């Protein structure tokens, strides 16, 4: 299934990232966000996303979808076939917003939630009409570049909704992974939360600074993880004997005090000051927007390189990037070829203008 019209409820860091991905795929999006600054903030993210996509597509971008700002959730979702909720991570707010979306959205529209860790079962109780169409579609920041989306269904979610959600996310260049059992924080954030807790301990205990810890990641396993995951990397680390040898070698460490995981650092002002002050020092003169640009340039460059390895077939996120950029390039060509002006019609005198029906069909197809 492809998206004809989308709605984004919440246009913050993540909501705006969704808007950028959708719009750059030629899809119209209606946004509802009560923040009076929302359109400026979305505009900033759009600027960054366009800049990144221009690097991905030197031949030109597809015609952008239209962004509109709705005054209510009801108006935003009224004619949408795909709705993505990205409001702050509070269950009471998710309930309020999802109840309203459910009340006003077309019955067959799919509703995705960007939640980082709330179980869909706990959210869909607020949906009185069609709770079966709610899925978690958990993305990673920046949504317009990172392809992964974790899909999680709740107790009331229909399997068909998961299948449609998979198709929808894939149609905008994403890699949907369906999480097999519903748990808090799903898989990505469970892993990240473990690393985050350890990182807080290491800085709090004065073992490393924020900057040193980031260096330890980005000069070593961070590079490995961009192209192979934990298990494949460790398989290789086991040498010719592979995973069995790796496990035998590091099995005993499971009983050693290598992690503080069961213990959580106390969250207080002292901890926040310690981390935030060091983070300010690490950033130096670089603003958040400048850091975003550096991040985006690096991500595009990494995916581009990964699209060329493995005998030209691409590898991991790079193989997907190759398909995605091809899909967008085709969409951009269609835009250029569309006989909108007399000049364009003159250029192709032998061809009859397409009837409205087939034009519509082509427009639907180009998004796939
Ligand atoms: N930031 C991340 O890295 C990240 C990654 C993945 C998922 N998420 C999830 O995405 C969701 C949004 O997070 P974020 O980081 O974009 O937060 P954010 O604070 O940047 O944005 C939230 C937006 O929601 C708006 N909002 C508040 N009440 C609203 C309402 N009633 N209706 C519509 N909009 C409303 C706010 O004005 C704000 O613009 C959360 O569930 C979060 O867990 C965040």
TrEMBL record:
Catalytic activity entry: carnitine + NAD(+) = 3-dehydrocarnitine + NADH + H(+)
One GO molecular-function entry: carnitine 3-dehydrogenase activity
One GO cellular component, as annotated: cytoplasm
Keyword Cytoplasm assigned: yes
Places the protein is found: Cytoplasm
SUPFAM superfamilies in the cross-refs: 6-phosphogluconate dehydrogenase C-terminal domain-like (SSF48179), NAD(P)-binding Rossmann-fold domains (SSF51735)
Residue segments, region Disordered: 332-368
Gene3D superfamilies membership: N-(1-d-carboxylethyl)-l-norvaline Dehydrogenase, domain 2 (1.10.1040.10), NAD(P)-binding Rossmann-like Domain (3.40.50.720)
3-hydroxyacyl-CoA dehydrogenase C-terminal domain sequence ranges: 186-253
Bias (Basic residues): 349-368
UniProt keyword annotations, A-Z: Cytoplasm, NAD, Oxidoreductase
Residues annotated as domain 3-hydroxyacyl-CoA dehydrogenase NAD binding: 6-182
Keyword Transferase: no
Assigned protein family: Belongs to the 3-hydroxyacyl-CoA dehydrogenase family. L-carnitine dehydrogenase subfamily.
Stated role: Catalyzes the NAD(+)-dependent oxidation of L-carnitine to 3-dehydrocarnitine.
Annotated protein name in UniProt: L-carnitine dehydrogenase
Origin species: Neomesorhizobium albiziae
């Amino acid at each position: 299934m492809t998206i004809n019209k989308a709605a984004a409820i919440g246009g913050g860091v993540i909501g705006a990232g969704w808007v950028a991905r959708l719009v750059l795929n030629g899809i119209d999006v209606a946004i509802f966000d009560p923040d009076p600054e929302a359109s400026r903030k979305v505009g900033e993210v759009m600027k960054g996303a366009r800049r990144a996509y221009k690097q991905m597509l030197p031949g030109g971008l597809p015609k952008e979808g239209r962004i509109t700002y709705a005054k209510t959730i009801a108006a935003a979702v009224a004619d949408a076939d795909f709705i993505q909720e990205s409001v702050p991570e509070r269950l009471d707010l998710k309930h309020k917003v999802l109840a309203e979306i459910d009340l006003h959205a077309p019955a067959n529209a799919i509703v995705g939630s960007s939640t980082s860790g709330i179980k869909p079962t706990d959210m869909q109780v607020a949906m009185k009409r069609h709770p079966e169409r709610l899925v978690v579609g958990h993305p990673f920041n920046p949504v317009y570049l990172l392809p992964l989306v974790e899909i999680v269904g709740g107790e009331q979610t229909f399997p068909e909704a998961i299948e449609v959600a998979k198709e929808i996310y894939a149609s905008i260049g994403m890699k949907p992974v369906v999480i097999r059992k519903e748990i808090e924080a799903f898989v990505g954030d469970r892993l990240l939360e473990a690393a985050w807790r350890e990182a807080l301990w290491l800085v709090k205990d004065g073992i490393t600074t924020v900057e040193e810890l980031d260096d330890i990641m980005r000069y070593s396993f961070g590079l490995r993880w961009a192209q192979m995951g934990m298990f494949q990397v460790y398989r290789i680390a086991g040498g010719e004997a592979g995973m069995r040898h790796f496990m035998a070698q590091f099995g005993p460490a499971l009983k050693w005090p290598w992690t503080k995981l069961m213990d959580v650092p106390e969250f207080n002002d002292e901890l926040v000051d310690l981390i935030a002050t060091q983070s300010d020092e690490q950033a130096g003169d670089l603003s958040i927007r400048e850091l975003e640009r550096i991040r985006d340039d690096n991500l595009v460059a990494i995916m581009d390189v990964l699209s060329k390895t493995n005998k030209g077939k691409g590898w991991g996120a790079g193989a997907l990037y190759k398909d995605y950029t091809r899909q967008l390039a085709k969409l951009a060509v269609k835009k250029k070829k569309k006989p909108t002006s007399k000049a364009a019609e003159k250029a192709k005198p032998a061809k009859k203008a397409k009837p409205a029906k087939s034009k519509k069909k082509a427009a639907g197809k180009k998004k796939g």
